[in-house]
Design goal:
single chain; 9-stranded mixed β-sheet; globular; Spore Coat Polysaccharide Biosynthesis Protein SpsA, Chain A; 345 residues; alpha/beta
Length: 345
């Protein structure tokens, strides 16, 4: 069989609610030179495709695996892919621009790019850019140094859905990876982009990112998420050391993220106080956090972030909990019905 130009890879877990919408957005593309590779990551009920929707796709393959997390599911999809270029789509998202694949194909063919970045939106009616990709320029060719500056000092380039890449860039890691539910796309982006030699930016909202309250990132913050994020950042640090990339900007962003994680733990009502404090203690010992704290400068941390990190570092967990109460109270008030609010003129 002739190999398609694109392999559209979808890792799916209990994805029935939005999955047909996702597939319909692919079927409506002006470019039909693609295959769809779906890996069902051990959904509670095996994933099924609507026959009418599936019949509109150029080609589709569904593979079911035991639940292993999104990293392993995407890796399986990459193993199955036959196309020259891989495009990743989350099962609750969709391709917004009907000419998206056509635009990307032109860039790969005309300019020989290895990786093409593109923007997304959270609003179909008013497609405002969701990602800040200004560090990559205004569009067109992107210097490799700019890619790594943006990647290492923030999360704008984390998601696999904001980039298309030549399939040959993907090589399976020799390291056995743990089951990752958090930051797995940041790790896979690193594994892929480090093999690239040329980058391109199409700074248009080609992709629709759906805010899904049921997703991992929007659920209660589990301590394991932070440990997994630190596992990934250890890989990022090793890469930065290998390339001679300064870690100051990385530390600034990571410490802010760590502060947010502490707040997330305080909001997680499934954790007892003892469990929460044990998590604070475990977080203190994470290697990535120790490196970031060694590079800490209060000039780039907000006062709140700096205080939270200091209280955690000094093991003053009771004060750390109290420090975060105003944010918790504010959240409760924000979600009260209007009838409970005081009305002003």
């Amino acid at each position: 069989m002739t190999k398609p130009f694109f392999s559209i890879c979808i890792a799916a877990f209990n994805a029935d609610r939005y999955f047909d919408d996702c597939l319909r957005s692919i079927a409506s593309q002006s470019c039909g030179d693609y295959e769809v590779v779906v890996v069902d990551d051990g959904s509670t009920e095996p994933l099924t495709l609507d026959e009418g929707t599936a019949g509109c796709l150029s080609a589709v393959r569904v593979e079911r695996i035991p639940n292993s997390g999104p990293y392993a599911a995407r890796q399986k999809a990459f193993d199955l892919a036959r196309g020259e270029v891989v495009v990743c789509v989350d099962s609750d998202d969709k391709l917004l621009d009907r000419s998206m694949l056509e635009k990307l194909k032109n860039v790969f063919i005309d300019h020989g790019a290895d990786v093409v970045f593109y923007n997304a939106t959270c609003d179909e009616r008013r497609p405002v850019r969701f990602l800040d990709l200004s560090g990559l320029g205004g569009g067109g060719p992107v210097e490799e140094g700019a890619v790594w500056r943006v990647y290492t000092k923030g999360y704008s380039l984390n998601s696999l859905w904001c980039k298309a890449f030549k399939r040959t860039l993907y090589t399976k890691s020799e390291k056995p990876r743990p089951r990752l539910l958090m930051a797995e796309d940041r790790l896979q982006s690193l594994e892929i982009m480090r093999n690239a030699g040329s980058f391109w930016l199409v700074d248009e909202p080609l992709y629709f990112y759906r805010y899904n309250p049921a997703s991992t990132t929007n659920g209660g913050y589990d301590p394991a998420y932070f440990y997994q994020a630190c596992y990934v950042e250890d890989e990022v640090l090793a890469f930065m050391d290998e390339r001679g990339i300064p870690a100051g900007d990385w530390a600034a962003h990571f410490l802010s993220t760590a502060s947010g994680a502490l707040l997330g733990l305080r909001y997680n009502e499934t954790l007892s106080r003892a469990e929460r404090w044990a998590a604070y203690e475990a977080i203190r010992r994470e290697h990535a956090l120790e490196v970031a704290m060694g590079l800490r400068s209060d000039s780039y941390l907000s006062a709140v972030d700096g205080l939270r990190l200091t209280l955690m570092e000094e093991k003053r967990f009771r004060l750390l909990d109290l420090n975060m109460l105003p944010w918790k109270a504010g959240s409760v008030l924000k979600h009260l019905p209007d009838s409970f609010r005081l009305k002003g003129r």
